[in-house]
Amino acid sequence: KGEDWGEMGGWKSVGGFFAGGPTVIRNANNDIVVFGRGPDKKVWYKVFHASGDDDEWTALGGKLLASRITAIVDPQGLIHIFARGKDSAVWEKRQYANGTEAVWGEWASLGGIVTSNVAAVVDAEGVSHLFARGVDGMLWHMTQKLEEDGSLTWVAWTKSENSIYLSSAATIVARLNAQNLVEVIVRGSDKAFWHTRQTVNDERGVVWSSWKSLG
User: How many CA atoms lie within 13 A of 206 on its CB side?
Assistant: First the structure.
């Protein structure tokens, strides 16, 4: 039979002390980056390099975060992280290009009053989408628009059209499908999974489908 391919190794501690997480993402250098929320309610991260080396845990600070971290990589290969703050707003911290290096900027509030973790996805045009449960129990969505100078800016939070009521402990998952359109799955207040997705309308362009129960 030969050697088994892809066999899992034994468990190994990578240190740290956390109240939430982990969130794991692959950066533009093919390194694995792990984020966690420490007992100080701030973000810590560690890079596992493709070469086999790894960095020490590094503090990224935070605004006394109240949820696990969500991370995405934009088309420029820069990481953005999002979380719900103690003030219930969504906060973002992102990398910027500084020559050949990526450096972290300051935390910035994206507003809103949310009651869940934040889900994030980058679409085929490089536009980021955020999703979270609002105080009304429904799904809220924030996205970006392309400015004339080619930059992307955030548009205000909007409620998902005809949103169902989400579970009070809602988990929201957002992914791109094979057509590079966004699909969202949530747990409803009836404990069933519910689904909505972007679809192309000949007259209105890209629109969201009606919510459908997956049972």
Answer: 11
Identify residue 162 by its one-letter amino acid code.
N
Terminal-residue alpha carbon distance, the chain? 42
pLDDT at 22 over 90: yes
pTM above 0.85, yes or no: yes
Q: Which long-range contacts (CB under 8 A, 24 or more apart) does 165-171 make?
A: 165/137, 165/138, 165/189, 166/116, 166/133, 166/137, 166/138, 166/139, 167/191, 168/115, 168/137, 170/115, 170/116, 170/133, 171/116, 171/117
To the nearest 10°, the Cα dihedral for 31, 37, 43, 47?
Answer: -20
Amino acid at 51: S
- 99-123-126 Cα angle (round to 5): 25
Q: What is the pLDDT of residues 147-170, one digit of tens each?
A: 888 788 999 999 998 899 999 888
Beta strands in 89-157 (DSSP E): 90-98, 101-104, 108-109, 119-122, 128-133, 139-146, 152-154
Give strand pairing partners of 158. Answer: 141
Residue 43's nearest CA partner among 27, 26, 19 is 19
Contact (Cβ atoms closer than 8 angstroms) between residue 58 and residue 48: no
Cα distance between residue 82 and residue 117, in whole Å: 9
Statement: residue 204 has pLDDT above 80 = no
